[in-house]
Design brief:
By secondary structure, this protein is mainly β. The chain is 13% helix and 36% strand.
């Protein structure tokens, strides 16, 4: 049973004023973050953000563009009232990068009304946290406006300088959200660009950083970012259009309590790497609607697809049969893994990957695979089965399919190829996760849009793709060491990512050769091990074939490394160069370091350690890509540790308190 922690550390303070004197100043509880809310000469509501003494956002316009209305709900507005409040509470996550998080903010709600007819009303809610700012719209029910028909938001993030940024320019809306996060000066972002969340920027070489994202996305369209059409510095929101109404992003009734937008987030930290410490993504989502979470069990899984279904004694190149599935179940059991993931090919006429073949049927298992027998074999070995499914086949029969396989004993599902984030597809995610919870099935979503913090509301939603991950080693050279490092400064900020590490066939970037079966990786073994610490995924694949792990160094670390954590700290790094993240489980700290193609020596402060001394086991680069070296040391919080990293290399460290 998940215990909800909602005891207020401070009383809830609520004040209301009939009319606010502009500007309105809002600061975070510790005073680090400051927001100034004002109106410009066109009577448009604006907000500006500072982090400490650094200007992050200059006055940025807010508003909505509603369909069928004479003009956007942006200018000519009167502030009719404000309400402020302070809240301080904590909550638990069943599976995530922390076990407990604090929800501590100061908030102001600004009520607006048009001066001219039709006199539409709009509320803007802004919160200041110590690690960021969140804002959302509320469109109340009102005369002549009972439906939200939204063309676009008019939300801007006007940068206070020509900052260095890193982003994924997708360019279109029908996308799996898989690509590289490239450096770009803010001044080079164009109105033709379409950036995914997060867009990460740094205010100066050694200055604070921020990331723009969204949370609590429900009954709404996904967010993209582009340069404002007037050429001003910064970005503005663009919403994914409805397939049935391309000029409309959102169409929904306005309920009695109003129609709310998702939260627009500006995460803030002293360093780009420290953005990993923020919990705003989950904090801004609601608690789960169900209480019993005892069936949600994170863990690691063997997997048949990435390595090309290659298992000794199995019928290689045949996607799903008893011999192959048995071999991977046995591999999981031998390695102490909790699960085996059966990918595309197990149901009748499957195997089309992105396409749905004629006659494909999720309720019928392909000949040669006795699925109940495989589930029983896994149960006897202590290994649960997950099943891959194409979303187009699942959606029309969702209730029946999930109930059927849950009753059979399947533990989780991997649903793939959604490749959209319009309002309908966003609703599909919520329907799927609701039905999966009712059937006590864990979920991994592929072909998925960027995370929005839903792992709090749906704690069985263990991981998702929406990342250019290790599968691309099968057909490209795009999964470079630099790319791996960049993911830790960008995509990782939003939530778990099913990158699928575990490749044990190591090459150097110069000797790497893409191949679909038995793929290589472009990093050292130590770099590959460190991905299990640096990257967050409560359902983590151990992706290579059983023979790749036979007698190999480092497998012992994969067996024992946790998949959920109590705390995370940024230790050291430089965007695109290297990163060191520390994660705590109980009283044990794990540190993962991944490096780009350039060898370097790094000094790691150990201030994250508690009092007393620790026994540190260090696994680092050996003399060859597939080799590792090990050492042990006694260290404490005041010490610094120097490590030499190979090009494409890395290291992992396990700090256990010394026995008294």
């Amino acid at each position: 049973m998940m215990k909800q922690m909602r005891t207020l550390a401070l009383p809830l303070l609520l004040t209301t004023a009939p009319v606010a004197a502009a500007p309105i100043d809002l600061t975070s509880p510790d005073g680090t973050v400051a927001v100034r809310i004002d109106q410009d000469s066109a009577e448009r509501l604006t907000y500006a953000v500072r982090y400490g003494d650094v200007a992050v956002l200059s006055p940025s316009i807010l508003g909505l563009d509603l369909d069928g209305q004479r003009k956007p709900l942006v200018g000519g507005l009167t502030v009719t009232g404000t309400a402020t409040r302070t809240s301080d509470s904590t909550y638990r996550l069943v599976a995530g990068k922390v076990s407990t998080a604090r929800d501590h903010f100061n908030e102001v709600t600004v009520s607006l009304e048009e001066k001219d007819a039709p006199g539409r009303k709009l509320d803007v809610i802004i919160r200041a946290y110590d690690d960021g700012v969140a804002l959302r719209y509320r469109l109340p029910q009102q005369a002549g406006l009972t439906e939200m028909a939204l063309r676009q938001e008019r939300t801007r993030f006007s940068f206070a300088g020509d900052f260095n940024c890193w982003g994924l320019n997708l360019g279109h809306f029908r996308t799996s959200h898989e690509g590289e996060f490239d450096p770009i000066p803010a001044g080079r972002i164009r109105p033709s660009h379409l950036y995914d969340a997060p867009l990460v920027c740094q205010t100066a070489a050694n200055g604070p950083a921020f990331a723009i994202a969204e949370a609590d996305l429900k009954d709404y369209a996904g967010l993209y970012l582009t340069r404002p059409g007037d050429g001003s510095l910064g970005v503005e929101s663009v919403l994914s259009p409805r397939p049935d109404e391309p000029k409309i992003a959102v169409r929904r009734p306005i309920p009695a309590d109003g129609a709310f937008s998702p939260w627009r987030i500006i995460m803030l930290a002293r360093h780009p790497g420290a953005l990993n410490e923020s919990n705003l993504m989950t904090t801004l989502n609601p608690d789960p609607a169900f209480k019993d979470t005892s069936w949600i069990k994170p863990g690691k899984a063997s997997w048949d697809w990435w390595n090309g279904w290659r298992a000794p004694g199995a019928q290689n190149d045949i996607q799903a049969n008893d011999a192959t599935v048995t071999a991977f179940i046995d591999q999981a059991a031998a390695q102490g893994l909790e699960y085996m993931l059966v990918d595309d090919g197990w149901y009748l006429n499957s195997g089309g990957e992105g396409s749905v073949r004629p006659g494909a049927d999720l309720m019928k298992v392909t000949p040669g695979l006795n699925l109940p027998a495989m589930i029983e074999h896994g149960r006897n070995k202590g290994v649960g089965l997950w099943l891959w499914m194409h979303w187009e086949l699942l959606e029309p029969r969702m209730e029946a399919v999930l109930a059927h396989y849950a009753k059979m004993g399947v533990k989780g599902i991997k649903v793939d190829f959604m490749d959209r984030d319009d309002q309908w597809m966003v609703d599909f995610y919520h329907r799927l996760l609701t039905v999966a919870a009712r059937n006590k099935l864990m979920v991994d979503l592929h072909g998925a849009y960027h995370p929005t913090g839903l792992i709090r509301t749906y704690p069985h939603y263990l991981t998702q793709e929406g990342v250019l991950g290790a599968e691309y080693n099968k057909w490209s050279s795009r999964i470079t060491p630099t790319h791996n490092v960049m993911l830790a400064y960008t995509r990782l900020l939003l939530g778990p990512m099913d990158y699928t590490p575990g490749g044990f066939r190591h090459a150097t970037p110069s000797t790497f050769d893409p191949r679909f079966k038995l793929p290589m990786v472009q990093t050292t073994r130590a770099h590959g091990l460190a991905l299990y610490v640096v990257y967050d995924s409560p359902f983590a694949c151990v992706s290579d074939s059983p023979d790749a792990y036979q007698g190999q160094e480092g497998l012992d670390f994969i067996r024992t490394v946790p998949t959920v954590w109590d705390e995370v700290r940024f230790v050291a790094g430089e965007v695109g160069q290297y990163i060191a993240l520390a994660r705590r489980k109980g009283d044990v700290w794990y540190v993962g370091i991944i490096n780009n193609e350039t060898g370097r020596t790094v000094d790691l402060p150990l201030s994250f350690l508690g009092t007393g001394s620790y026994q540190a086991e260090i696994i680092h680069d050996g003399p060859a890509a597939a080799a590792i070296a090990r050492s042990t040391r006694t260290l404490k919080a005041g010490d610094a540790l120097s490590l030499t990293l190979a090009g494409a290399g890395g290291a992992v460290m396990v700090f256990k308190p010394s026995q008294k």
